[in-house]
Write a structure and sequence with these properties.
The chain is mainly β and 163 residues long. The protein is built from 2 helices and 12 strands; from the N terminus they run ααββββββββββββ.
C-alpha cells in the first residue's frame, strides 16, 4: 500500500524522508513542505514530480514514464538509475553531486555551476557534457556517443572517461 496514494497530503507535510518502491498507482508526486530526501524506485507509472522546494537529495530508479524533472532549488545530490526516458536535467543552482546510470534520452548535460562530483554510466544518447564550474571528480563509462566532455586541466582529483 502506497502512503502517497492512500493518505492526504496534510498528513505527510511533516515528513522529511520518503522511500517509495513498487507503487504502480503513483503517477504524480505532490509538493510536501518539509521533505528533504526522496527515493522512488520501480514506480512504472510515475509521470511527474512536483517542485519540492526543500528537497536536498533525490534518488530515482526504474521509473520508465518519467521524462522531465523540475528545478529543485535546494537539491544537493541527484541519482538517476535506469530512468531511460528522462530527457534533460534542469539547472540546479546548489547541486553538488550528479550520478546518472542507464539513460537513453539525455543528449546534452548543460552547465551546473556547483557540481563537484559527476558520474555517468551507460548514457547511450549522451553527446555533450558542458564544463561544470567546480567539478573535481568525474567518471564517465560506456557513453558511446559522447563527443564533448570537460577537458582535464589538472584541477581534477579524479578524471576518467572509458568508452
Amino acid at each position: 500500500m502506497c502512503i502517497i496514494c492512500n493518505n492526504s497530503k496534510e498528513q505527510l507535510n511533516e515528513v522529511e524522508e520518503i522511500i517509495i518502491e513498487n507503487c504502480e498507482q503513483l503517477t504524480r508526486f505532490p509538493i510536501l513542505n518539509n521533505l528533504k530526501n526522496l527515493t522512488i524506485k520501480n514506480c512504472k507509472n510515475l509521470r511527474k514530480i512536483a517542485n519540492i522546494y526543500t528537497l536536498t537529495k533525490l534518488n530515482i530508479e526504474k521509473c520508465d514514464n518519467l521524462t522531465d524533472l523540475p528545478s529543485f532549488p535546494e537539491l544537493l545530490l541527484i541519482e538517476l538509475k535506469f530512468c531511460y526516458n528522462i530527457k534533460n536535467i534542469p539547472y540546479l543552482d546548489k547541486l553538488e553531486e550528479m550520478y546518472i546510470i542507464g539513460n537513453n534520452a539525455i543528449c546534452k548535460l548543460d552547465y551546473q555551476y556547483n557540481v563537484k562530483k559527476l558520474g555517468l554510466i551507460e548514457c547511450s544518447s549522451l553527446k555533450e557534457v558542458k564544463m561544470m564550474g567546480k567539478l573535481h571528480h568525474m567518471h564517465i563509462i560506456h557513453c558511446y556517443d559522447l563527443i564533448k566532455a570537460p577537458i582535464y586541466d589538472g584541477d581534477f582529483t579524479y578524471y576518467s572517461i572509458l568508452k
